[in-house]
Amino acid sequence: MLNLEPGMILWTWITFFIVLIILSKVALKPMLTAIKNREDGIREDLEKARQQREEAEALLQKHQEMLAGAEEEARKLLKENQQMAEKARQELIEKARQESEKLLERAKEEIDQQKESALASLKAEVADLAVGAAEKIILQTLDKDKQKAIVEEYIKTMPKSVNN
């Protein structure tokens, strides 16, 4: 089946090398160039991807720092607002306390004035009662029982507001 003839082997080797040389010139060189170009493109794409990843990481870091700064600023503003609100609340409480003290003082003064006025009025009425009773007593005989009856009668004749 398999006969090895030296002439056939020689021509097979010669044909093989001729085809190899032709292929290396015609097909292998363009294939190697295409592979090299493809390899260079992939290498460039990988480098661009690495650079873009580094830029994205830098941007992410910058955004995180900005976010942390914004959060800190928000906390600071919130704290300041709370302090201002507490201060305003304390001021309102103090103002309300002062106003209530003023109202209480005015009410006390008004009560004292009304009290003084009522006492003056009462003194005047008591003086009038005493003068009226003394007048009746002097005009009557100075009997003790009669004096008592006259005073009681005079008191009964007085207006109801004075008796109460």
From TrEMBL:
Residues 32-124 form a coiled coil. The keyword 4Fe-4S does not apply. Pfam families: ATP-synt_B. This is ATP synthase subunit b. Keywords: ATP synthesis, Cell membrane, CF(0), Coiled coil, Hydrogen ion transport, Ion transport, Membrane, Transmembrane, Transmembrane helix, Transport. Component of the F(0) channel, it forms part of the peripheral stalk, linking F(1) to F(0). The b'-subunit is a diverged and duplicated form of b found in plants and photosynthetic bacteria. F(1)F(0) ATP synthase produces ATP from ADP in the presence of a proton or sodium gradient. F-type ATPases consist of two structural domains, F(1) containing the extramembraneous catalytic core and F(0) containing the membrane proton channel, linked together by a central stalk and a peripheral stalk. During catalysis, ATP synthesis in the catalytic domain of F(1) is coupled via a rotary mechanism of the central stalk subunits to proton translocation. NCBIfam families: ATP_synt_b. F-type ATPases have 2 components, F(1) - the catalytic core - and F(0) - the membrane proton channel. F(1) has five subunits: alpha(3), beta(3), gamma(1), delta(1), epsilon(1). F(0) has four main subunits: a(1), b(2) and c(10-14). The alpha and beta chains form an alternating ring which encloses part of the gamma chain. F(1) is attached to F(0) by a central stalk formed by the gamma and epsilon chains, while a peripheral stalk is formed by the delta and b chains. It comes from Caldithrix abyssi. GO terms for molecular function: proton-transporting ATP synthase activity, rotational mechanism; proton-transporting ATPase activity, rotational mechanism. Belongs to the ATPase B chain family.
